[in-house]
């Protein structure tokens, strides 16, 4: 590329400064209009994030770009503008939380991933049985319970109001986080309203009449394979990954071959009439998975004492420490901190944080307001409590 040797860097910078001054005026004007949008949404109850509208705005403006080589970079700028607009709307609308006495499940559309027998299904059944507002008769025949093939489909269903409440796995005590769950909650208009810690007990199941020596193929979810790796390493079986432990049970039942077995819970054995070949094959006896109860409505139930947020620090020295010191300043106990990559920005990260508190507390409100000012992104995922369920 030919370089004009007569170029003057200071002159170029002056041109950029003039353009920037125009941009700031236009952005300020845009945010004034965004304020009107926020007021309308507050009055009508419309959600801040409108995915369809956002895509339309970005696509419409990309079509106006004359130099198509710049499309990718302009798209990144447009997405940043949209994110900033959403943050400003949240600030103007304020917290529109509804406080309730207990989890409201009666006449709600409920969802989980997998098929009957899955751990999420088991959690949902236990939640219904332990909920004082639910009719405990014929729970498993409830017509308002829906199952989904993936976490993405489940979260999308909550986001689009196809269902009201869902059970989403978030973290296992042995193998760590369920990678896509936090990212999905962060990008959609959904709220965490409860947490369940469910004991995981994996079993080796086969079709009726089968024995250990018949097995050639094992079917299950990848996490189940990891959590039972010590037992599996003693055998030369072919491992077949499936999207859910209960789906693997349903699959081997449908094939009805003695060479097939699965790793799943006892509920799967019961639902699909399978043979118990080996009980409790976990690497660790104390194996638990955290499940979030997620909702399309921002509610806080009496006794809620944990808050989950996602934030992002400015890309400068000491920025993250500055955010974390806010918890110390206001006497808030942080119980979990994880980093997640920002998909649209390589080598930049979100930080997922759990801390103890309630949204009605003045010190929590002040801490979050200071965090909003010092961070370049803040999303409050929910204020909730742990449910200790009788099984």
From TrEMBL:
Name used for this protein in its record: Bifunctional chorismate mutase/prephenate dehydratase
Residues under site feature: Essential for prephenate dehydratase activity: 289
Function comment: Catalyzes the Claisen rearrangement of chorismate to prephenate and the decarboxylation/dehydration of prephenate to phenylpyruvate.
Superkingdom field: Bacteria
Organism expressing this protein natively: Leptotrichia mesophila
An example Gene Ontology molecular-function term: prephenate dehydratase activity
Domain Chorismate mutase, first and last residues per copy: 3-93
PROSITE patterns attached to this UniProt entry: ACT (PS51671), CHORISMATE_MUT_2 (PS51168), PREPHENATE_DEHYDR_3 (PS51171)
Major site of localization recorded for this protein: cytoplasm
Gene Ontology biological-process annotations: chorismate metabolic process; L-phenylalanine biosynthetic process
Domain Prephenate dehydratase: 109-296
Entry keywords, A to Z: Amino-acid biosynthesis, Aromatic amino acid biosynthesis, Coiled coil, Cytoplasm, Isomerase, Lyase, Multifunctional enzyme, Phenylalanine biosynthesis
Catalytic activity entry: prephenate + H(+) = 3-phenylpyruvate + CO2 + H2O; chorismate = prephenate
């Amino acid at each position: 590329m030919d370089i004009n040797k007569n170029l003057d860097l200071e002159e170029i910078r002056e041109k950029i400064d003039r353009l920037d001054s125009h941009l700031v005026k236009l952005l300020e004007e845009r945010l004034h209009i965004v304020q009107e949008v926020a007021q309308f949404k507050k009055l009508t109850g419309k959600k801040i994030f409108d995915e369809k509208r956002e895509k339309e705005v970005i696509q419409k403006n990309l079509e106006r770009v004359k130099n198509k080589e710049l499309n990718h970079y302009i798209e990144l700028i447009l997405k940043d503008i949209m994110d900033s607009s959403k943050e400003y709307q949240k600030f103007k609308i304020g917290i529109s939380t509804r406080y309730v006495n207990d989890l409201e499940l009666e006449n709600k559309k409920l969802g989980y991933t997998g098929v009957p027998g899955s751990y999420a299904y088991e959690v949902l059944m236990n939640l219904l049985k332990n909920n004082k507002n639910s009719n405990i008769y014929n729970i498993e025949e409830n017509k308002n319970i829906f199952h989904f093939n993936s976490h993405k489909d489940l979260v999308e269903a909550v986001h689009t109001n196809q269902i009201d409440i869902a059970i989403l796995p978030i973290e296992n005590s042995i193998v760590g986080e369920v990678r896509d769950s936090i990212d999905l909650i962060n990008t959609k208009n959904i709220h965490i309203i409860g947490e369940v810690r469910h004991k995981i007990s994996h079993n080796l199941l086969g079709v009726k009449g089968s024995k250990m020596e018949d097995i050639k193929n094992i079917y299950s979810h990848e996490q189940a394979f990891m959590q039972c790796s010590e037992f599996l390493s003693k055998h030369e079986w072919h491992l077949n990954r499936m999207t859910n432990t209960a789906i693997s049970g349903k699959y081997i039942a449908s094939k009805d071959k003695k060479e097939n077995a699965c790793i799943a819970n006892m509920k799967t054995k019961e639902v699909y009439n399978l043979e118990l070949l080996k009980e409790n094959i976990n690497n660790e006896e104390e194996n638990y998975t955290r499940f979030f109860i997620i909702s399309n409505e921002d509610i806080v139930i009496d006794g809620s004492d944990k808050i989950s947020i996602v934030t992002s620090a400015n890309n400068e020295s000491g920025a993250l420490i500055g955010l974390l010191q806010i918890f110390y300043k206001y006497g808030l106990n942080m119980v979990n901190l994880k980093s997640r990559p920002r998909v649209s920005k390589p080598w930049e990260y979100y930080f997922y944080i759990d801390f103890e508190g309630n949204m009605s507390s003045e010190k929590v409100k002040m801490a979050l307001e200071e965090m909003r000012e010092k961070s370049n992104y803040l999303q409050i995922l929910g204020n909730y409590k742990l449910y200790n369920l009788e099984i």
